[in-house]
Amino acid sequence: DLYRKVFVFRKDPSDAYVLLRAKLEQPLQNFTVCLRSYTDLTRPHSLFSYATKAQDNEILLFKPKPSEYRLYVGGKFVTFRVPEGHGDWEHVCASWESATGIAEFWLNGKPWPRKGLQRGYMVGAEAAILLGQEQDAFGGGFDVYNSFSGELADVYLWDAGLSPDKMRAAYQSLRLPPAVLAWKNLSYEVKGDVVVKPRLRE
Questions:
Q1: What is the pLDDT of residue 86?
Q2: Whole-prediction pTM value?
Q3: Which of 17, 84, 95, 97 could form a disulfide with 32 if both were Cys (CB 3.0 to 4.6 A apart)?
């Protein structure tokens, strides 16, 4: 149980990562991914990397610079420009819907203008899911200069879109619907220099 705990990625740059195990029976036509990060990195870094054998950027949440987030689906991406952080935790949720090709992005409980991405696409179910590295091959092919350094917490993946109420609930750490990946009962394996520690502040 990782309640009130965080993953600390100690090194910069880093070759460490956390492998997540999800039980996905079928391809995803919708998804929502949420997580909280705390870092002072200014270089590009990966937050959540979901690769299949056919596509290394099947789902990728990536931060190329402090004022920008990118959401990749099936190798294509949209950019969400954000204010630069003030040295605090940032909570992000990104969701995507195949039928409309609509991507939603929420930062600290607030929605950004929606964008269009990969209408009609299907996200493959057999995936390597990693925190801390960006996969350029299934389960590998890392570039240490895209690695994450800092603290990560509250990682969730749903095989559905979330309502605005639930998006805000994720930000506020309230009760959430059952998830494919849930922080409270996360099945994970640490690879390299990552330490689980209590959160320093709420």
A1: 82
A2: 0.97
A3: 95
Query: With contact defined as beta carbons under 8 Å apart, do 151 and 18 qualify?
Result: no
Instruction: Kindly give, in sequence order, each residue whose CB lies less than 8 Å from that of residue 201, ignoring residues fewer than 6 positions away.
Output: none
pLDDT at residue 202, as a whole number: 61
Residues in the chain: 202
Residue with tokens 């689906």: 73
Residue % of the chain over a pLDDT of 90: 96
Element (H, E) at 98: none
C-alpha neighbours within 13 Å on the C-beta side of residue 109: 9
Q: Provide the strand spans (E) within the chain.
A: 5-9, 17-20, 30-38, 45-51, 59-65, 68-73, 76-81, 90-97, 102-107, 110-111, 115-116, 128-131, 150-158, 188-191, 194-198
Averaged pLDDT for residues 156-163: 97
pLDDT at position 85: 83
Residues 6+ apart with CB under 8 A from 200: none
